[in-house]
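Blackboard transcription, Thursday session:
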Amino acid sequence: MCLGIPMLIIEKSGNDAVAESGGVRKSIRLDLIETATIGDYVLIHAGYAIEKLDTEDALETLELIRQVYRAGRGEDVS
Amino acid sequence: MTDSGALGEYRDPSLARALAGEMQAIRLERPIALMHVCGTHEHTIARASLRSLLPEGVRLIAGPGCPVCVCPARDIDRALEAAKRENVILATFGDMVRVPSSESSFEKAKAEGCDVRVVYSPVDAARLARLNPEKEVVFMAVGFETTAAPIAASLADDLPRNFSIVPSMRLVPPALRFLMARSAGAIDGFILPGHVSAIIGRSGYAFIEEEYGIPAVIAGFEAIDVLRAVRGLLAQIAGGARGTVENQYGRVVRERGNERAQSAIVRFFEEADVPWRGIGTIPRSGLALRREYERLDAAVRLDLPEPAAAVDVREGCRCHLVILGEAEPETCPFFGGECTPRAPYGPCMVSSEGTCWARFEYRSVGRPAGR
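(Written on the board underneath:)
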């Protein structure tokens, strides 16, 4: 029910926008987001963007997990 | 649920295995019970068989995390009362269609001639009202905070007069409070729902730290998100200090959440004491329309009668115990026999977010062949 799909904003006009993910395009609403521009990833739920995706944070988390992976394989993690 | 583009690595199974391996190193002195309260988490856990990767002695319980499953029969009965009328179109999210009411369901009502339409967004429901000015369109407004925000935002549009809602939204923090009081220390940590948290923020759970000190982690929905959350909880528990609320879903969840979404909800709704299916009434755990927006309430607009005594738990059904994490779906005599996703007997078998649904659908995952 609380499924949120990350989609990329590709068109925007006021609070109406078109977002895309995996080749699927959807009309979405941006009323609940303060600033969103074309090129932002947003989380879509029930037709509305409910939050902007912080891609920098996402990549940092991934790097932390990669370190765990490398440590598990006995590789140098520094 | 999935991350796009460069973030596809969130689904890399070798990273999940590395996290699971690291978790085995944490020393625990007693059996540990962790609870999540999100149907999407249960879906991830069941699909990737994450329970089989946990250290011995760690139990991961599915709590009341599916808004469809906890929607009381009373509210569905009320919507059906409206749907039975000649000039009414009932708009609902797809997951609600087969949820049992006291005696029927939206699906059965449709088969009997009621006009039931599935919508993806509350905006689509309002559009139906615009396209059918001679009809009354009633939207079944279910969901947690995640869904309450879009519903509230849609009410701010210039709505046609022939549109109203059956408010049946539920709030997660009061349910957590209820669970912590009920379990009296039997739950050692909580995995908190990522997309509810996107709305209410880490600060929405301040009471857990302040009043209970039970470890909690806000988690995303990939297998590695859930494994990291478990690892974080076990580390807190092994450390022995008073528990805190960690945000491990920083790519989506901010400290204070989405304040614009919170304002939208507060503009139209106020907290109300409402029943949760099979659990009973939890104080201030639901959203009722504010008095100045009462005209948007289907019960007021269509002058619907108070439903007769509702039947939440059908005879023999164990969903109410499953929802509280007090029974495993597999221990129910109906599981997989008289109750399947194709022909659900209880509410937890209806939606792909329901604990019984997920356990049934992925029942062979992670088990050796022949068992």
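Lecturer's comment: Chain B touches chain A through 60 residues (CB under 8 Å).
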